[in-house]
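Input chain follows. Return structure tokens only.
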Amino acid sequence: MAITREKKEELVARYKEQIAKSPAIVFTKYQGTTVAQVQALRAKLHDQGASYMVVKNTLLGIALEQSGRVKPDELLAGANAVVFIGEDIGKSVTALKDWIKEAKVIEISGAVLESSVLNAEQAESLSDLPTKEQTLAKLLGTINAPASQLVRMINAPGSSLARVINAYVEKRKEAEAA
């Protein structure tokens, strides 16, 4: 059954909306999956801020071009479903890979990362990226380190003086006791 022009325009608009929110788009071959499996995957990815959508290749290509993204012609062939990754790329791709290991049905065929097209191996390696929380923790640690060193340097002369005075008092006590 043919899709009406209005439906096609609606799909392109929905794809463009998802593309605008996604720094990365992972392409998967979904043949052989059941509706229940797809729903389970959608739920798992939704928890990570990502969404899974079966797409019309031609319409997705149009949406990518209109959004100023690269159009990966080699990935826009066959039965495709894509994961529109939210702001935490590493976490979302890890969730996808974990689900694939369990279900053994879907296979990652590639990805679009901003303006780069990635092959399947490179797309899977996106799971090695640090999560948003890990990145923030590293950043805060880097920012906090000089401040901690400054506090230690400022406190060092005072604590040294306190130790010298304490040693003098102890020595005086010993001298008085003797």
